[in-house]
Design brief:
With about 475 residues, this protein is of the alpha/beta class. About 35% of the residues lie in helices and about 20% in strands.
Length: about 475
Amino acid sequence: MKNKVLLISLAVVLAVSLAVAGGCGVVCPNKVTVAMTRSISGPLANVHFSAFGAMYPVIKTYVNDTLGGITIDGSTFDMDIDERDDGSVPTNVISNANAIVGDIQAGSVHFMWGPTCTAFIDLVAPIANSGGCVLQTHEGGATFLKDIPEKLPSWPYVFVNLSFSDWHQLQVLGQMLVDESATNVYVCWQNDAHGLEYMSASEAILRDYYGCTITGDEAVLHTDPGFDPDAVVANINATTPATQVVCLFCYPDEILGITGAMIGANLSVEGVVGGPGANFGWFGGEVPEGAPCPPGFGKNAENVICYAVANNKTSNAGDPITGATHTMEWLYDTALGLPYWAHDPWGHPLYWAAFEIWLEAVEDVGTVDGDGCFQVDQDDFKDALASYNSSANSVATVLGPTWYTMFETVLGPGGGILAYECHTGEVGQWQDGYIEVVGYDGVENDLDNYRITANYTWPKGDWI
């Protein structure tokens, strides 16, 4: 009798275990799960929290509460986010990426979104591509990745969504400088893949194409014991001829240090251009006490140039972008609902457009199995994203009709980058505590989707 009871008990335990694990196909989570390795801690945490890290919780809430879930073949699934902290450490990024690919292959995770910076894309992308898993990135550029045949042109599972140095930022900035007779720049560049991309693009676009002289350049990294912002400013001040424009193509900690040193030295230049950090709302907006971000520079940010795709003035109910799902006013004031110090007008509009593309493809190729579980084939998902490859084959997003520029080699198709023709802006400027989208005279004729929200101010003027 005892043996019989034991056998029955074991059978029940086995059945429950299989059901919980999904082994019998009866029980499965009623969710669509997206996983990503993120720099929630470590030196890149301030990029994470100000950029995509501020947005994906909003996306999850929007999908689950506003849309009521993701609809597949008449069934509705909630969205779940599986974020894995890599501590800004490359080995952790690699470990997390491998684990996520394994989980996608096993079926416990469905999608993979990007890490926190350019250098980490270069680590994660080949892992995802080799594993046959689609990677959609958010922060980070692809200046080098798109130009190396063995990389993005050979990675059909990789889709990049941010604007970056030569896609199409420095082209617009260069024309702005030329129009103002700014003939030289000093470039401070992050001592990693991000900075190398911007330094290379500065040489190719600002110097070689627009004819600007680079009066000097230096690699900076705030974790380097030798990093001295005052020494950087002294180097800028010692250039002959005198530097007209300082380009800070680096990350927030470096930008904060060098900008503070420029203010302290009252460095006189005609323009200051800041990369990641200068585009975040806390850089020049009002920051309440206790906010989880740096205090920024307030009025001293006035007329500092940054990168910006849109703000909540880019379009409105009376002048919507043709084919857009919503206005930018709706995105910022309603969907995001973030305080201004948490805004990222460079990244957030593009991240939202990438989400809308993701959702379109998910609902297009996702399936429901016989047990009511969500399923997705990564090849079908890849092919759906790749099919959005022109204005004629596009997805309606907050930007308007949106598509990918696709890359390939003679061996076959590669990955894609969200087309710069879809960007509603490239360059921003701090004006009266707010980032306006600015550009050269005629930019809206050259780039049909560009939406200037204010004329830019030149020269920068004195520090306050």
